[in-house]
Amino acid sequence: MSQAASKIPGQASEPRHYSVIIVGGGQAGLSMSYCLRRAGIDHLVIEKHTVTHTWRTQRWDAFCLVTPNWQCALPGYPYSGDDPHGFMKKDEIIDYLDGFIRMVDAPVLEHTEVRHVRPRPQGGFAVSTSAGEFSAGQVVVASGGYHAPIVPRMAERLPASIVQMQSSEYRNPQALPDGAVLVVGSGQSGAQIAEDLHLAGRKVVLAVGEAPRCARFYRGRDVVDWLADMKYYDMPVTEHPLREGVRDNTNHYVTGRDGGRDIDLRRFAAEGMELYGVLDDFRDGLLRFAPNLMQSLDDADATYNRINASIDKFIVERGIEAGEPGVYEPVWTPPAERTELDPLEAGIGSVIWCIGFRPDFSWLDAPVFNGRGYPAHSRGVTGQAGLYFLGLPWLHTWGSGRFSGIARDAEYLAALIAAHGTAGALAA
């Protein structure tokens, strides 16, 4: 549903007012719309592209969820398929989202860029967009935290013959030129893309980062099921041992591919994948790596075993009958730390940068950001009256940035917005 700023003939253009404007039409923005509509609060969702655009355009062909389908619990729209413990593939995820979009039927202004949001002296907010001027009593920022792909400046110096792309641009092994593929980063995207290439028979060189890993199944169940029973996914950030520091953590790598399994980089290495430490630089024709591969693999395995040990403890305390416990033992160990590689000599034809994204809230003119450009908030509520965030990692719990936790966060903010309700009307 497309809407634009209203104009009165013969008078200066006046911004069209809404009680709430939601910036971003992904699962977070649509969840917010669902909750506001149920509360009877008028609002508008403004989306730069089309709703749920990222899911359709920034995922590779073999992408699938790493969390089981039962955790797909958008507000009013829980997973209803016949495989709750499976892992939806890309097309199935899009089908699920399409159903949610139809159910919510949000008032959306698509293909519209929000260029400037600022508090107004009389209260509420001025919202400037590529489609005109709006005003709002309250604003919910639901555009996520992954905006600008990170590609280091060293990329400019790589040989012109090497094709480079960011993880969001990768689609499948066949779309890459011949030759080995350097994958930089081993978080969820890097590890899964490296696996996708490896399974296709491509030669992979993986620059391993400091991401942790976890088991897919342990003692007869998905680890996610165990952690859910242990109430880990209900733990608020204020009770996490790292407190707000957990928001900076890299996600554990694991996969739901082919019914779900571990991602074991050591096993990949034993099968021919080349592992190096963190990529530090490209200088004098050589890729330069930190000598930290062994430490990164050991740390990832320690996290893997630590999570399993916490499950063991829970099983003992509750007297649960389960499969036998176990400890992961390395299947491969680096014979030495290798710190240099000539990419041309190694036959590298392409590089995939899988080192994340930076947030870009430059359009939001409000004093709510810390020194690193991240919003300071408590459960999405900022120090600026009427300004909220939704859909960020660990906004409140582990699931805040995922399908599993957005409903709880959106319902909480909707209640606060309703309580704050008359401010928008008075400011209009």
From TrEMBL:
Gene3D superfamilies: FAD/NAD(P)-binding domain. InterPro entries: Auxin_biosynth/cation_transpt, CHP04046_FMN-dependent, FAD/NAD-bd_sf. Transmembrane segments: none annotated. The keyword Oxidoreductase applies. Keywords: Oxidoreductase. This is FAD dependent oxidoreductase. The keyword Oxidoreductase applies. It comes from the Bacteria. It comes from Cupriavidus pinatubonensis. The lineage of its organism: Bacteria, Pseudomonadati, Pseudomonadota, Betaproteobacteria, Burkholderiales. Pfam families: Pyr_redox_3.
